[in-house]
Every structure is written in structure tokens, then in C-alpha cells.
Specification:
heterodimer, A: about 1000 residues, alpha+beta, FAD/NAD(P)-binding domain, seven-stranded mixed β-sheet, 24 helices, B: about 100 residues, 6 strands, globular, SoxD (chain B), Sarcosine oxidase subunit delta (chain B), SoxD_sf (chain B), sarcosine oxidase activity (chain B), aminotransferase (chain A)
């Protein structure tokens, strides 16, 4: 197909660079500089999708971010699929592949279209709520069909091959929008030396100057823009960001800019380049120069392809050299839209008529229309469009001065394009992102930014300013003021260039064009194209009692599309206001929220994906674990060995072997990940006594003690062993996952409650490598590695620690046990960790030293009934509930953290859940963790639940499964049977017992 | 995303370096053992949720590790002041000043 609608000269496209692209499986040609939308229009493609609800054919309406219809699925391969791409913003490149998002099975013929034709009464607003809610069980089925028919785009099923970046920036003046006001602001701010960023969503900076008819200093406006851009480019303190949408304006002048770096080049970014970049900008001052969006008028069948915004017609002709039709009818309430008709006529195509809703339009444009011989029909409106897949004509009628009544007679005009303009809505979106409400101005016929907490100025059309000279003046002023406010005192002022512009006549406040039939009987008059909301729909919503504009929005879905109602919202509010006999400011607006336009997940994630999603922490022995076939478990950010399978072993076989080695020979665990906090100061001991539930006053130098830590509510939150190094020096260990939280907890109490105490905390987790050598042969093995530590039973007692050397390396050795066996915990400086570990293995070979991981550690400790804070506790468990009364002191003079909490009425009552052991009736069955306990499995649902399983394993040493769990009043129920119903309908029967399954007297660790 | 001035580091830093740590100026009762359950329950669980000025505690977790206080408008998110532990706010809401007067 040839580009029938392309003019032979003019525009900002490069005719020497033809590009081929594929739309809906068919190849088309365009030029460098085109958007997908301009190229489709050049090729005479009318239908770019089907509407959401009624499945009506839809064409391109706009030329920018506000486009509701030309929303495409883009991507040449599965991995590069991008949904919801606005064809009006996507630049064309060679080989681009896209297709319509809506329309099943095709946009040209659509089964849902028949539903749409059946008329408004078939699918009123609230239709989905009312029709598909019941029966609830059917919703899944409904949803699939509705989604498929509606077509909301799809995400790729393969991994995105592209990389995305984040960049943090700090600037003095951030300018949003690169049109007349934005460029002027950048120019004046840059002169002060302030660091400036100017971001604009379009490929080319310049905004409306690129197609403006006005001249600046006697030259075309686009030349002035080019000169200013060149000046700014030459400034070291200015960063210009085209193709960069400021998608969010957040608290304390934090803005996010979504920059599309290569989306205009290729389907997939060139190797080594980021496809998109998210700038995270903290700005001292912000200038919003975001411009305005033209409002279409709401009239019958105003969605038929060929209906467009007047300014879009101008943009396509002047920038892309594309005239999107042959015969134009223009309907307007204001002067600015006349330009579309002038441009149309200048391209040699026929302007059928300019239909002006004003009875007596009087600006300079009227004279110009007359001079050009264009027919102006005043005091009239296009009340209805004819045609289905393309406009074939319009009905024009005189209207009354209020604009709410079609007076007739109705005349028919033949045309293929209808441009409309209801005036301009300032793009207030960003100004609203942090909660500021926009303010209605009758003279602007639109909402302008309201008061803001942000350090923000506004300039240009966002203020409702129409005249170019005023936009420039506001821009210069705002840029200068922003720089001064940001602390720059020498800001030379710039003299305003001379702008040659027309005198502008008053506009008419009209949104909804009356039809000769009442709204409910007239053909559909669309307000929000993307969600198929009509004027009649809004009237129904208000009639049904939805009076708040937020309710109207939710009932009708107005503004819920990916365009967030940029075109339709103000018209919708005006219609809602009129039907409730309210003013527009009384009705108010809905709230605009980030993002301004859709942002890809890639840009949000940046490099925080895949390998870099989270930091990883490795112990010093990690390379050894890798070499020896460890499988890993994530604990916090740590990679901990889970178990060390040998060839041909199942997981359970590995665990059985590792457990037996620890109980019968010798085994070793890398415990480096446990949190370690160095505590010093003369009040350190007293501090420990206030933080832990047990006593610390008498812990002698050279001794260790286990402690429980509670919150003020008396609930256990962490535990660990603390060693006394000196009277004013302790080392605390915490759970692996709790290390950071415990340190913050200690700091909190020291800084806020007990600042008079002399005590200091520092994390030393990374400074030490810790290896736990456990089992009957552990003493023999360790004695080969140390000459200066006496390991004998009496010289080195259980819960002692000694300083000395291990494998020649300075070490702290703790005789503590989390396995219940004779056990030594060797701590060496982390830089020697791997060396010492390997030395231990050299000597350990003859004892068949077995490495074990977290899973075996869990089994061994569960055999002994030792808890894991965070697994056997959940924030609702006191030390007493755990049966750990021995770890709670009532003698301490200071009311330590948790004491008062655990003595509240609820914590003292009978019948609390308590931690007990559970033995399954069938010894080989392992109860799944989390299983709920009931007393009677035959009780009708909902059953009385007694508690749940917190830890459950198969113990090779005991030859049976073991479990720990909470049971209501468990201590009193020893020997009773409880039942654990499973999702598959089976029931596991278990007997309540002591959680200490092995060696209840603790003899094994005391050898 | 707040931009927070740490009164100890004496610099503005990004919110990512800080944690919110709840309502400020909640002193631990001097004699917990003689508190009634109700008094202890108030200390544990009852917090203000004002629309407007609020005094809260923050910690410069990824910085100096110091806790400090902040007076913040919960409606506009404006940070009115930051002040060190043990200091009193300069900016208080009308309700707060009434409460203080009668307390």
C-alpha cells in the first residue's frame, strides 16, 4: 500500500530514510521521524482497534500521550512483547512489529461488535457488576471471556532480553516539559549557573513550537526553538532529556523520569545499552511546564474512525506531513482549532465547513477563514456522525446559546474527517500527584494547579495561558525565580522575544453537544473512548444515585483506562455536573495519581532483577561448600549449606548420614552466619540483664550463657548465647535472620530509655568465621589442632570459652552445644576461616569428619527439643509457653524487658497454647509443618483447633519421625492423642509428649 | 520518598537510609511491675493516628544508627522539624498543647 495521505514536501520527517514496519501482519512503509500513528495514517489505516466494551471500530484521535484508541501490542519476538504502547508516542523504526490490542478475532471483523450494535440498553453502566456477579462460582469463567474479548494486551511469556537502568540525580531546577514555556524556563535558569534538567516525553524538544503558526522575532517558532535547544545543549550545567516522561512527582520534590533510550531504534536494545532508564531526581525547585491537552467535544457517534482532535490534525499535517483524510468538517468552541482547517486547506484538501458553536465568533481567525474562503457555520454544532468504519458525513444543527438544545433544522454534510475542539485542559496531572487539588477557572474553562506543598512553580499552558508570548514570559520568569529560590543570586533576566500572534476571541464553555433526541435516545456520545463511557452512561450513574465524582468514576469506569482519562475526564465531570444541576467546581475532579503514562516493569525494576535482585552474603568457607557439593538454603540474605548430598543419595539419606555422624563420630557445621554483636562498656552487664529474661549479674569471665529476648509484650523474639570476655566486654550471638533487628533493638533501648548507661554495640558478624565441631570424637579432633587450649573435661567445662590458637590461628573456642553432643564452636578471624576449615578437614579425614548443613542442624536440635526463634515461636509465645521457665528470672531488681508483659492477665491464664513434642502413631509418617491439631477429626467443620506443628522431621537416630508444636494446654495433656487432618482428606494421629526426644538428662554433651 | 535531615549527621539523606520507628515521646513506665494491665496495655499498644502534626521516631539505620524525633504533617507529608532524643518539639498541634496543659 502506498502512503496516499503523505504530502510530497514539508514536515519534520526524513524522506531519505524509508522504514518498513508490520501492523496486524501486513507490511507498510513510513519515514524516519514518523510515529507509528502518523505512519498508519499516512497509509490510510483507519481502524487501530476495537473498543473495550462495545467493540466498536476505533481510529487514531490524538497525536500524543492522551491517545485512548491507538494502543498497540508491540514486539517482533515473544521475549520483546510490550503491551499498551501508544502508537502516537512510539517512534517508527525499521522492522517494527505491532498489532491491535483490542479486537478478537480481528479488528476488522469482531464478534463483540454485534453486541455493541445491539444498543445502549444491552450494556448499561454497571453492566459487569450487575450481570456477572452471580453466581460467584462462575466469575472465573466470565472473567476469561470478558478479558479475551476486551483485550488488555499481554505480557511476554519469555524473559525480557533487555537491561534497564536507574540513575540518581540531584538538581537545582527540574523543568518538566520542553515546549515554549519549558524551553524559556530552562534558558533563564541555565544563565544562573544552576544545575538544570529539562525532560520532555516527545522525541523532539519544542512541543507545540514544532508546528506553531506564530513567528518569534520574525522567524518561524520552530527556528527559535532550535536555537534555544542548541544554546542549552552547549551548557555544561543543563541536561536535556527528550523521550523522557516525568511519570511521577513525589514527596519532597522527588521526581521519577522514565527515559526511553533505545525504544526508537530497535525491537531490542543494542548489546551493552540500557533500553530504558529511570532517573530518580531530587530537585531543589521544580518548574512544571507540562502544557495542555485539547478536549474533544462529545457528540453522537464521535468515535467513528475519522473523528479527531483539531490540534492532532495540525500536528499530523505540520510535523509528519500527513493529512488524515480528504474532506474535513471542523467543529469548535474556540479560536485555536481554526488552525487545523487552515492547515488542511493549505495541503490542498477540502475543508467542507467550520462549524462554530459560538453564535458570534469574533477573533482574528474568523477574518482569516473568510479571507481563505472557508465556510464558517456559526451558532451550530455537529450533532451526529454518519458512518461505521470511517466517517461518511455529519449532521449539523443550529444550537441555542446555552449549548444544551439542538434547534434544527438538521443539515447533512459529506466528509470523511471530523475534527473537534472543546478548548484546552491544562495538564495538571503531576501537580496533583502529592495531593494538591486543582482549581477550576471559568476564564480558562479548565482546572489549573492548586496550592502545593512542593517547591514548585508553573509556567505556560498548564496555567491556562493561551498566548505564546505570555507562555514565554511565564517560562522566563519561572526559570529565573526557581534558580533564585534554589540559591543562585546572579540570574540575568532575558528580554522577551517579539511574538507575532493573532488576537484571540472568547471561547464558549461547551462540552456535550446536544442532539435532537434526548441523550438516552440519541446514538452513543462517547466521553471516555478507552473504557467506552458515554454521556448517557454518566447520566444513568447520577440518576442511580452515584453523586460523588469518585463514585461516578467507579460505576462507569471513566478514567480507568491506561490513558487515565486524559481526554475524557473533564467532559465527564462537566456532564455529571450538568445532570446534577451543579457547577463543575462543585462536582470536582477525581484524583490524578502516578504514573502519568504507563511505565514498563523493566524500568521500575532496573538492575534489581535476576542475580542482582537481592544482595547475597557468603561465609568465608563458601568456596569449600561449593566444591563439596552443598545444596544451599537462603537464610536472610545468607547462602547457607542446606545439606551435602553424596552421589546417589536421596535428601533423606544424606540427612540420615549427616545426623549419625554428629551423634556417633564427628561432624562440622559452618555457623558463621549467626549474628554476633560485640558489647562493651562498664554497664554492659546490667544492660544484658535488662534485655534478656534471665540473670547475667554473676556470669563469670570465661563463661557463656544462653539467653531469651522478649518484647515489652513478653513474647519471645530472639535467642542466643552470650559470652563474658571481661567484666565490661561481652559477645552476643543472635539468630542468623535476627542479627540486624537485635542490634537495632539494643540501640533503641540504649538511646531512648537508658542513655545514661555506658555501653557500646557493634556488629562483628562478618569479622568472625564460626565452625561447630560436634560429636563424640570432636575433642579428639580438635586436640590435634590446638596446643595451647586444654580441652579436657575438667579444664574446659560445658558453657566455658577459652582463647588460644586453632591450626595456628588465634581463636575463641566456646564449649556450647546446639546438637546435644560434645561440641566446640571455633571462632577465628574471617580471613582465616577457610584455612582453618581446611585444616580441620585434613585432620578430620581419619575420623570421617562429616560436613552438615542447616537441615541436619534442625533435626539434631529438634531431637533435643531446642527451639528456633521465629520457627517455633511466632510473636505470640512467652518463655513460659515454651516450657523455658528456667530461663526467666524473677529475682532481678530491674523490671527487664518482657517481665511486665508476660505477667499480663492473658499471659497467665490457663489453657494457653504450649510447646510440646509430638510422636506420630505410625513412626514413619512426618507431619507437614503448619498442620492444625484437632481433638476429634470427625467433628463437623469448623473443627475446634488446638494448635499447629512448628517443626517436624524424620530422625534417623531415633528411627522415627519427631515433631514439635503448639497445643492448647499442652503441658497438661501429656500422653493424649491429637489429630492432624491433611488437605488430601487423610488424618495423622499423634501422641503428645515431651519435646526432648533424646538424652533428656543432657549427659551426652557433658562427657 | 522523603528527604530527611539527620540531626546527628547534619545532612539531608534519602528516606531509604532511614526506618520509621513509631510514635515519639512514649516513655517506658518507671515502675512497670506496679502498672495495671490497662496502663501497661496503653503503653504497649495505644498510639495516635492524627491527621496533621505528628511526632514520630526515626532511626538512621543505614547511616549513623542514631534514633531521633521528627515532627511531620501526616496530611502533606511535610517534615516540620527534626530533633534529637531527649529534646522536645518546637512545633506542636493545638490538641497536643491542650493535652500538655492539662497533664
Amino acid at each position: 500500500m502506498t502512503q496516499n495521505n503523505r504530502l510530497s514536501s514539508g514536515g519534520r520527517i526524513d524522506r531519505s530514510q524509508p522504514l518498513t514496519f508490520t501492523f496486524n501482519g501486513k507490511q507498510y512503509q513510513g519515514f524516519k521521524g514518523d510515529t507509528v500513528a502518523s505512519a498508519l495514517l499516512a497509509n490510510g489505516v483507519d481502524i487501530v482497534g476495537r473498543s473495550f466494551k462495545y467493540s466498536r471500530p476505533r481510529g487514531v484521535i490524538a497525536a500524543g500521550a492522551e491517545e485512548p484508541n491507538a494502543i498497540l501490542q508491540m514486539g517482533a519476538t515473544e521475549a520483546t512483547q510490550v503491551p499498551n504502547v501508544r502508537a502516537t508516542q512510539q517512534e517508527l523504526f525499521d522492522g517494527l512489529v505491532c498489532q491491535v490490542t483490542n479486537g478478537w478475532p480481528s479488528a476488522e471483523f469482531d464478534v463483540m461488535g454485534l453486541v455493541g450494535k445491539a444498543g445502549g440498553s444491552f450494556m448499561p453502566p454497571g453492566f459487569y457488576y450487575k450481570t456477572f456477579m452471580y453466581p460467584q462460582s462462575m466469575w472465573d469463567t466470565y472473567e476469561k471471556c470478558i478479558r479475551k474479548a476486551a483485550g488488555l494486551g499481554r505480557s511476554p511469556r519469555e524473559n525480557d532480553p533487555d537491561i534497564y537502568d536507574h540513575i540518581n540525580q540531584h538538581v537545582d531546577v527540574m523543568i518538566v516539559g520542553g515546549g515554549a514555556a519549558g524551553l524559556a524556563a530552562a534558558l533563564s535558569a541555565s544563565r544562573s549557573g544552576a544545575r538544570v534538567i529539562l525532560a520532555d516525553e516527545q522525541a523532539e524538544l519544542g512541543g507545540s513550537l514544532l508546528h506553531a503558526s506564530e513567528s518569534i522575532d520574525g522567524r518561524p517558532a520552530s527556528e527559535w526553538a532550535a536555537e534555544v535547544i542548541a544554546q542549552l545543549e552547549a551548557c555544561d550545567n543543563v541536561q536535556l532529556l527528550p523521550r523522557s516522561t516525568v511519570n511521577g512527582y513525589h514527596d519532597h520534590n522527588f521526581l521519577t523520569i522514565h527515559q526511553r533510550c533505545t525504544d526508537h531504534l530497535l525491537d531490542c536494545a543494542p548489546i551493552g545499552q540500557a533500553r530504558q532508564r529511570m532517573h530518580r531526581v531530587r530537585a531543589k525547585w521544580v518548574v512544571l511546564a507540562t502544557g495542555a491537552h485539547e478536549r474533544p467535544l462529545v457528540f453522537a457517534n464521535n468515535d467513528v474512525p475519522g473523528c479527531m482532535l483539531a490540534s492532532a490534525v495540525t500536528t499530523y499535517i505540520k510535523r509528519y506531513s500527513v493529512v488524515p483524510g480528504e474532506r474535513l468538517v471542523l467543529m469548535t468552541t474556540n479560536d485555536s482549532a481554526y488552525q487545523a482547517a487552515f492547515d488542511w486547506a493549505e495541503s490542498g484538501r477540502f475543508v467542507v465547513a467550520i462549524v462554530d458553536t459560538r453564535a458570534h465568533p469574533g477573533g482574528d481567525v474568523i477574518d482569516e477563514a473568510n479571507r481563505r474562503g472557508l465556510k464558517v457555520i456559526a451558532g451550530s454544532a455537529v450533532i451526529e456522525v454518519k458512518g461505521s468504519k470511517r466517517v461518511t458525513g455529519v449532521s449539523v444543527s443550529a444550537i441555542n446559546q446555552l449549548g444544551d438544545k439542538a434547534l434544527g433544522p438538521v443539515k447533512h454534510l459529506t466528509c470523511d474527517t471530523v475534527a473537534s475542539s472543546g478548548g484546552w485542559s491544562p495538564a495538571v496531572h503531576l501537580s496533583c500527584h502529592t495531593g494538591s487539588r486543582p482549581v477550576w477557572r471559568d476564564d480558562v474553562i479548565g482546572f489549573v494547579p492548586g496550592n502545593s506543598q512542593q517547591k514548585q512553580l508553573t509556567a505556560g499552558a498548564i496555567n491556562g495561558t493561551a498566548a505564546l508570548s505570555t507562555c514565554l514570559q511565564e517560562g522566563f520568569q519561572a526559570g529565573r525565580e526557581a534558580a533564585i529560590n534554589a540559591g543562585f543570586d546572579t540570574v540575568p533576566s532575558i528580554s522577551l522575544p517579539k511574538v507575532d500572534e493573532r488576537h484571540i476571541g472568547a471561547a464558549m464553555a461547551l462540552f456535550h453537544i446536544p442532539h435532537s433526541k434526548p441523550t438516552s435516545r440519541a446514538p452513543k456520545q462517547f466521553v471516555d473512548f478507552q473504557t467506552d463511557v458515554t454521556a448517557a452512561g454518566i447520566e444513568i450513574a447520577t440518576r442511580e444515585g452515584y453523586e460523588s465524582i469518585e463514585h461516578v468514576k467507579r460505576y462507569t469506569a471513566m478514567g480507568f483506562g491506561t490513558d487515565q482519562g486524559k481526554l475524557g475526564n473533564i467532559n465527564g465531570m462537566a456532564i455529571a455536573a450538568k445532570s446534577m444541576n451543579k457547577t463543575i467546581p462543585e462536582t470536582g475532579t477525581t484524583i490524578f495519581r502516578p504514573n502519568y503514562t504507563p511505565v514498563t516493569f523493566g524500568a521500575v525494576a532496573g538492575r534489581h532483577c535476576g542475580e542482582l535482585f537481592d544482595p547475597k552474603r557468603y561465609s568465608a568457607m563458601h568456596s569449600w561448600h561449593l566444591k563439596n557439593g552443598a545444596l544451599f538454603e537462603d537464610v536472610g540474605l545468607w547462602k547457607r549449606p542446606w545439606y551435602f548430598p553424596q552421589a546417589g543419595e536421596s535428601m533423606q539419606e544424606s540427612l540420615n548420614r549427616e545426623c549419625k555422624a554428629a551423634r556417633e563420630g564427628v561432624a562440622i557445621l559452618d555457623a558463621s552466619t549467626l549474628g554476633k554483636i560485640d558489647i562493651q562498656g562498664k554497664d554492659a552487664r546490667e544492660f544484658l540483664g535488662r534485655i534478656y529474661t534471665n540473670a547475667w549479674a554473676k556470669l563469670a569471665i570465661g563463661k557463656c550463657r544462653y539467653g531469651l529476648m522478649c518484647g515489652e509484650d513478653g513474647m519471645v523474639f530472639d535467642d542466643g548465647v552470650t559470652a563474658c570476655l571481661a567484666d565490661d566486654h561481652f559477645v552476643m550471638t543472635t539468630t542468623t535472620g535476627g542479627a540486624a533487628r537485635v542490634l537495632e533493638w539494643l540501640e533503641l533501648y540504649h538511646q531512648t530509655e537508658w542513655p545514661e548507661m555506658e555501653v557500646y554495640f557493634n556488629t562483628v558478624t562478618d569479622q568472625w568465621s564460626t565452625m561447630t565441631i560436634s560429636g563424640p570424637n570432636s575433642r579428639k579432633l580438635l586436640s590435634e589442632l590446638t596446643g595451647d587450649i586444654d580441652l579436657s573435661r575438667d579444664a574446659f567445662k560445658f558453657m566455658d570459652w577459652h582463647e588460644g590458637t586453632v591450626a595456628g590461628v588465634p581463636a575463641r573456642v566456646f564449649r556450647i552445644s546446639f546438637t546435644g553432643e560434645l561440641s566446640f564452636e571455633v571462632n577465628v578471624p574471617a580471613n582465616y576461616g577457610l584455612y582453618v576449615w581446611e585444616k580441620v578437614f585434613e585432620h578430620g579425614a581419619k575420623y570421617n569428619l562429616t560436613p552438615y548443613g542447616t537441615e541436619t542442624m534442625h533435626i539434631l536440635r529438634a531431637e533435643k527439643g531446642f527451639i528456633i526463634a521465629g520457627q517455633d515461636t511466632d510473636g505470640s509465645v512467652t518463655p513460659i509457653d515454651l516450657g523455658m521457665d528456667w530461663c526467666v528470672s524473677n529475682q532481678k531488681p530491674y523490671s527487664y524487658i518482657g517481665k511486665r508483659g508476660m505477667n499480663r492477665e492473658d499471659c497467665l491464664r490457663k489453657n494457653r497454647k504450649q510447646l510440646v513434642g509430638l510422636k506420630t502413631k505410625r513412626s514413619d509418617v512426618v507431619i507437614p509443618e503448619g498442620s492444625q491439631a484437632v481433638a476429634d477429626p470427625n467433628e463437623p467443620v469448623p473443627m475446634t483447633m488446638l494448635g499447629h506443628i512448628t517443626s517436624s522431621y524424620y530422625s534417623a537416630c531415633l528411627g522415627r519421625s519427631i515433631a514439635m508444636g503448639m497445643i492448647r494446654d499442652g503441658f497438661e495433656r501429656m500422653g493424649q492423642t491429637v489429630y492432624y487432618p491433611q488437605p488430601d482428606g487423610s488424618v495423622i494421629e499423634a501422641e503428645i509428649c515431651s519435646p526432648i526426644f533424646l538424652d533428656p538428662k543432657g549427659e551426652r554433651q557433658n562427657v | 520518598m522523603f528527604y530527611i535531615y539527620c540531626p546527628y549527621c547534619q545532612e539531608h539523606r534519602e528516606e531509604e537510609e532511614f526506618h520509621a520507628a513509631g510514635q515519639a515521646h512514649i516513655a517506658r513506665p518507671a515502675d512497670p511491675d506496679n502498672c495495671t494491665d490497662e496502663e501497661w496495655g496503653d503503653y504497649l499498644y495505644f498510639r495516635k493516628n492524627p491527621r496533621g502534626l505528628h511526632h514520630e521516631m526515626w532511626v538512621h539505620a543505614a547511616g549513623c544508627r542514631k534514633f531521633f524525633n521528627m515532627t511531620r504533617d501526616t496530611q502533606s507529608y511535610e517534615i516540620k522539624e527534626v530533633y534529637k532524643m531527649g529534646e522536645q518539639p518546637q512545633i506542636v498541634s493545638e490538641q497536643d498543647s491542650i493535652a500538655r496543659g492539662t497533664a
